[in-house]
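Researcher: Checking consistency across runs. Here is 16S rRNA (Cytosine(1402)-N(4))-methyltransferase again:
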Amino acid sequence: VICSALPPGPPKVERQAISRVFQALRLEVNDEVGALEDVLESAAGIVRPGGRLVVLSYHSLEDRRVKRMMRSGDKRGVVERDVMGNAISPWTPLRGVPKKPSADEIDQNTRARSARLRAAERSLFLPPQPSAGGVPYPDRRR
């Protein structure tokens, strides 16, 4: 069915298109994006201040969500600021850009070519809580 919907082209292009269709089906059926968002939202309540969160993503849809959460602490990517204009987030990214696999690693494992590794350190602030009116508060756990 998928092949009949594609215009004729080189086998590599057809294979890529078919792979994308099956990836989209897998993402939807397994609710992979929803599961990732659930983990990212709950991580700030689990990781203690100074602890680190490391996430390996394999496609841009996942990576975008991880990047937004690590920069802002919010899945929408909205950065909360205090009265002085400082960003308030439960995470401080450890690198500005994600770590990508080396050419040697890609040679050994071609599936690694799309991988992106991001890491962030837990700060003293928890994300805004809906019941608290969206106002972040310092984490007093030690």
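Researcher: Does this match what you'd expect to see?
Model: One thing to look at in this run: The beta strands are 52-57, 80-81, 87-88, 91-93, 116-122.
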